[in-house]
Amino acid sequence: MLKKSEPLFILILSCSVFLFVSCVSNPPISDYSIARAAHDAARDSGAPRLAPSLWFKADQAYKKAQKLFKERDYAGAREAFEESRFLSEKAENTARVTSPDGGGLQ
Asked: What pLDDT does 23 receive?
């Protein structure tokens, strides 16, 4: 037979388990990889020199995402990686368009 406090204990335990499970998320590995590739491509295209303000924003977003990833704030890291990818691609495109040789675009 259940004591009066046992249903309350079971309810609290169930809620705690639910909250714990719902807070655990998967690391955004693919977002990290895509952001890193975009970041590297922007750097290799000359974005630090040809699109410095966009490069700075992209680099800051990438560093922020890495920090959040290391802190296991995967939701925040995912958003920051997406922002970094977007800004890196924009910086790369700007660098290629403004490059004296056309950025290899023919």
From this structure: 52
If one counts every other C-beta atom within 10 angstroms of the C-beta of residue 52, the result is: 13
Higher pLDDT, 77 or 13: 77
Show me where the domains of the chain are located. 27-104
Give the mean model confidence (pLDDT) for residues 93-105.
Answer: 80
Containing 50, the helix (H) or strand (E) segment is helix 47-50
Nearest to 65 by CA among 55, 75, 80, 54: 80
